Amino acid sequence: MGLALVHGRARAGVRAPAVKVEVHLGGGLPSMSIVGLPEAAVREAKDRVRAAIQCAQFEFPARRITVNLAPADLPKCGGRFDLPIALGILAASGQIPREALADYEFIGELGLTGELRPVDGILPAALAVAQTGRKLVVAEGNGPEAALASGVETCTARTLLEACALLGGQRALPPAVAPPQRRSERPDMRDVRGQSQARRALEIAAAGGHHLLLVGPPGCGKTLLASRLPGLLPEACEAEALETAAIASVSGRGLDPACWRERPFRAPHHTASAIALVGGGSEPRPGEISLAHNGVLFLDELPEWQRHALEVLREPLESGVVTISRAARQSEFPARFQLVAAMNPCPCGWAGDASGRCRCPGEAIERYRGRISGPLLDRIDLHVEVPRLPPAELRPDAPEGESSAAIRARVESARAIQQQRAGGLNAQLSQAATMAWCRLQAHDQALLERAIEALHLSARSMHRILRVARTIADLAGSPAIATAHLTEALGYRPAERGSRRQAA
Q1: How far is CA 78 from CA 82, 108, 150, in A?
Q2: How far apart are CA 293 and CA 143, in angstroms?
Q3: Mean pLDDT, the chain cut into blocks of 10 residues (504 residues total)
Q4: Which of 131, 247, 488, 500 has its CA 20 to 30 A from that of 260?
């Protein structure tokens, strides 16, 4: 009778819980069974492992083999347990030393020839292994991603035979090496002509982490402006970059280790479903809002989105977290993103344009704008009208706008003030912190209260106005919110729908 224990890692959301692969060889008719909530891909490992062991010139034991994946109540999926199972069988049958297994964790899928193939979710596993003090062995294709995790010694193997040679002390495996960082070219703000108010709103949004809605006719530059926001944001710190990269690693869409420091910019099509936005599946995967974590989520043609799809944004906009519950499991994904949305003012797109070409009746405009719920609009801090530019401002010899680098310098200064004051961005201040750090003078408080009454704004809107005013003051280097800062913040807040209808 033989028994061996191999350490591996499962995938559960962005976590990588430890899994003990216990292999027991007993008497009886030759067979192999895998227990511990294995899904189809894990149950099929018995055939891959058998062929890989035989191709590596080892003997597959003609015994009753039982493989237990502990803990038993954690669902196991994918081919990531192939390598630990194969090594456990070889160690239990005495073909490799079982004592050496205690110092390593193994993750990898086996081909029938014994080739070791990469799997997803390696970065969260490497970060988890770093806390145990053990070494990690992965496929060669996973090496660059695993090397992003500091504090863990990771080596790569091409085949099952190489992993066995490492445990037998016959050869050392090459360490995983992170690729050189590559910076992709971000669109620059100097390409944006005119639109001074929209440029200003974009700077405020970048400085305070505020959500932004751009409203204007077709071709006025809404998408152009939104695509420039990532270039205004400061570079992510290592903790933020690793958290974002871990989400991309488990998404099934792959992670480019050479660009892991860049903030994401996600722009899903308006036909995307609610599940595509929030995530889901039998094996829960992150959706677009989690893939935009620590970056920007751009939703173009906002009224064309399904109402249900937009409503799933409401809770993540407040909490910064998405919880996906299924019958067998529950996964939690971070979703602290910055929303930038764009829409036309009416079905034809030309309401309010100086050309007077809009012929949409008032009821049609109300129905069009009514596709977006009031509670969702209430959670967007900055509402900006983007007008059509005169042709003279689009000439090739027209003056360029201010560069992204110059604006980013002011954004970084404002964010440094916020971090020193409250330890986070103004858009993320709690209600108590908003009251503490966004105090107004008596006459400004009276001005705010009159505006709230006149515009029929909610308490949430009032707090968001205060946070935007605090960001404007930080950009100006002012320790207190002045009247000019408050009035500018009020200018980015539209009246509630009820008051607009009454005014009409």
Answers
A1: 9, 10, 25
A2: 24
A3: 91 93 93 94 95 95 95 92 97 93 96 95 95 95 94 95 94 92 85 89 96 93 93 92 94 87 94 92 88 96 94 91 80 93 93 86 91 92 91 79 93 96 93 93 95 90 95 95 96 66 38
A4: 131
